[in-house]
Each structure stands twice: as structure tokens, then as C-alpha cells.
Amino acid sequence: MKRVYSIYIVLLVVGLSLTSCENWLDVQPADTVTEEDLFKEGTGYRNALNGVYRDLSSTSLFGRELTWGVAEALAQSYGDSYNTGNSPFASDLGHSDIIKYDYTTDQAKKLISSIWSKAYNVIANCNNIIGRIEKEPDGKFKGGKLERELILGEALAARAFLHFEMLVYFAPAPVTNPSGNWIPYYEKFPQIGAEYRTVEGILELVTRDLKRAQSLVGPFDTFVSDDENHRMWLHPDYRFSSSAKFPSIPQTTDGFYAYRGYRMNYLAITAILARAYSYGGQYDLAAAEAQKVIDFSCSEMYKALSYTPESKVKGNFKMSDDLIFALSDSQLLDHYKTFNSGKTKLTLNMDYYDPYYNIFDAESDYRGKLLLTEDADWDVIGLRYTAPKTSNEYTTIVADILPVVRLSEMHYILAEECADRNSFGEATAMLDQVRVGRGCPSGLLDGAIRDKESFVEELLNETRREFLEEGLIFFYYKKMGKRPSASMTEEQLYFPLPDNETVN
Predict the structure, then answer these.
(1) Is pTM, for the whole model, over 0.70?
(2) Cys-Cys link to 94, which of 6, 107, 367, 457 (CB 3.0-4.6 A)?
(3) CA–CA gap between residue 167 and residue 165 (Å, rounded)
(4) Is residue 503 a part of any domain in this protein?
(5) End-to-end Cα separation, the chain, in angstroms
(6) Looking at residue 157, which CATH number applies to its domain?
(7) 502 lies in a domain?
(8) CA separation (Å) from 138 to 88, 142, 143, 198, 218?
(9) What is the pLDDT along the chain (504 residues), one digit of tens a residue?
């Protein structure tokens, strides 16, 4: 049997500098340049990598579909008024079909194809960077070897991450022990005719690339000297901002090295590696990587991660203190507002988010109290991507944030490993760490988790509390061998390949 491959040859032309008020992700020069001219200087690799992050934030990927769009439609996060197709967002873009798990309509096919093609286009750009930079001398880069390996590591991590996402959406879950080949793993540019691989085979390549990326990026993010303290750039005061709140600590004057929360930093790579291991059922390996993330950030001096206190949430709906990795969309508020007002609003599924009977089992849980609201039509809507209710130091910083990886996921992964060992008390304690961080009183889950089935049930409830409109709820259902809806079939847990990806 022979596969016929689509060819994603992407000329890496860079143009249109971003309009964000911050310049960390600016793509320069503003006018277009040829690929060969782009890579003449070391700064060209910076621009090319910034272009990768920009594209990851496109609406076909994490700027909508893999966060609050398709991913949440699959998870049944949106309610009946949305399901009917009355919303232009639903009917015109195909989301109402996705909610019904009908992937055969023209709109659904177009939507699915856009995710696939954009992901593999970005992978092609990653491969162009990787293939070229591996042949370059350290001296070509302003920061020498440290910068060259940083760019290489981030490109490798982005390549692995996107392949992993395509595996989640276009192949069965590992827990079902699927046979057959499902998606390609591209490692060269131009990417022509890569072999389609098994689920296990893709996961092996994903973890291989992530481990290499970890070793390349780690020295940068952990580097401390008398003149530089790179580790501090992962601190919450610096991760998504350039403002110096600790003037005594040496800071970079080079914006490319800042804003590490928006990049494939060491913690992000390690956390995604933990996610990949857990998806493949390798709970011990997943827990080891998750523990690295937690241990890295536990020092009081270098504390990188902590649960956002309730007092700050009204001005920080993204809860950025515990965000390990995010992407940036300078127009996010406008993009989301288009589909969250009037008759187009994204109303939430009342089976879960009914204010009078819902999955929030503690009134003090600020995820239900501050991140959801009931409007004049008695519909419940999410506030994650709306303008904060109050202004504080975070308001302008977090407006463009698209959450991708959180500290809470690391505690969930540790809980999974405990449950796999039938240590349900330990699993409960791990879930409780997140819940307490979100304002819940300690101990409400004591005795509720008695076996693996009750653990899975509680974990899935937690994902609906924690990851609403962040794109991970469906992932957790699939990973745990469950379905978000009783009407969903096993085959509907993954998308069919686009029509131009055919089999002879």
C-alpha cells in the first residue's frame, strides 16, 4: 500500500512585523526577504524562529482551533444555543458539525484540513531552521554557542510538539492499542513523502526530539554567572513581561532572550515531554519529568511557578503565575469578542457549568466564581479571553496570552502515576494541591477516590474546572479512554485525514 503525500514546501519568507506593543516577537525586516538572504546572518535565525511562534498563534492552531475552537467543540464545552448553528461562528466555520461529530460536511472538512495544513507548514519551517542551523558555526550568532543551541532546541521542541498535536487529533489514543500507520513525522526540508507511522512510532520520535531539545535549551535557561542570570527570566515577574521588578538582578538588554514564557523554554519542553509520556501510558517516565518541573520552581529564590492568588484573578484571567508556556496573539481580545457577543456568544454547556448544579464542588473555587459569569439571557459564558474586570499590574501583560501548559497539569500527571500504582490517597493529595491553589478547602476529595474508575471521573471533572477553553479537556478524555459524549463513537475520537492525504 502506497501513500500519496501532499507536499508542504514552504518558502520561509518573513514579513509583516507584529503589531504587539511588545517587541519580543517582532519579525524583521518589515518588508519581505528571500530565504537565502534571511539566513545570511545569525539574526535571520531569530526572525525565522519568531515566525514559527507567530504561526503557532494563527487561528488554525492555538489562536483559536486548538484552544477555544475545535478542541472545545470536541469536548462538548459549548451549549445548546451554540449547537443549533445559530451562531455564525458555529455555522460558517464548521464548529456546529464538529460538536455533532460529523466530519463529512464541506465546512468540517475545510476546518480539519486547515488545522492539518497549517501544522505541517509550521513543521516545514522548523525543519528548515533545524537543517540549516546544524551546519552553522557558533560564531555566526551574537550569543555564540549558547544562542545557536537555544534556537536549535526551540525549533526541535516546536516540531515535536506539533507532531504530537497532530497525533492527538488524527489518530486513535494509545490506550486503545491501535494498529496501523496514521500520520507522517517530517524531519527534513523540503518535506516530501515521509513515511506514515504507528502511534507508538510517532510518540518515540516526539520524545526523542523533546529530550534533545531539553538538553540544548536547558543550559540557557539554567545559566547563572556574575553578569547574567538567565534562570530569573523564568520567574513570574519576567516570564511574560520585560519590566524589571528586581533591579539588583542583571537583566538582558536583548529582547530576543526575554519573554521566556512565550517560548519553548526548559520548563515548557520538560512539561510537554511529561505530557507525551503520560499520553503513551508511561506514567513513571511522565512523573519523573513532571517532578523536574516542580522541583525546578520550588526554590524561594528562583520560584518560577505558583498558583495565582484569588486577589489577582480579576485582573489576570489567564492565571499567568502558574503558566509554564503560552503563545501570544496581540489581537486575541478582538478575535474572541467577535464570537462572544449577542447571538454569536459562546455559551457554555449547562450540563457542566449550570450555576446552580455544576461540577464546582466548592463555592470558594475561584475558577467557578471568577472565570464564569451568567448573562442577561441566563446563559453562562467564560471570561478567560475577555478583558479583565479590574486593572492591576497584570492587565496589559496577560491580554494577549494563549495558555498552553500549566503547573496544574504536572500535578495531574503525578496523580496519574499514583493511581496507576493503586495509591489513591497519594493521587487524591496531588489533585488537592491544585484545588487548594484555586481556593478550595483541603480535604473535600478525601475518600472520594477509591479505585481507578473514580479517579478518572474526578480527574476529568478537574480538567473541566481547570482547562476550560484552553484545549486540554478533550485531550484528557481521549487519554483516559473516555468520550466527552455518549453519542460519540470510537472512530469519532480522531479526524479523518484531509482529502488530499489519500491512500493508493
Answers:
(1) yes
(2) 107
(3) 5
(4) no
(5) 6
(6) 1.25.40.390
(7) no
(8) 51, 9, 8, 37, 17
(9) 333 333 333 444 333 233 333 444 555 544 456 788 899 999 999 999 999 999 999 999 999 999 999 999 999 999 865 444 455 455 567 888 999 999 999 999 999 999 999 999 999 999 999 999 999 999 999 999 999 999 999 999 999 999 999 999 999 999 999 999 999 999 999 877 789 999 999 999 999 999 999 999 999 998 877 667 788 888 887 888 765 554 444 555 677 888 899 999 999 999 999 999 999 999 999 999 999 999 987 766 668 899 999 999 988 999 999 999 999 999 999 889 877 766 667 889 999 999 888 899 999 999 999 999 988 778 899 999 998 877 776 677 788 999 999 999 999 999 999 999 999 999 999 999 999 999 999 999 999 999 999 999 999 999 999 999 999 999 999 999 999 999 999 999 999 999 877 533
What single-letter DSSP state applies at residue 24? T
Nearest in space to 310 (alpha carbons), one of 445, 437, 461, 462: 437
For residue 420, give its domain range: 3-484
Alpha helices in 19-105 (DSSP H): 35-38, 42-56, 70-74, 80-83, 88-93, 95-99
Q: Are 172 and 178 in contact (CB under 8 A)?
A: yes
Domain count, the chain: 1
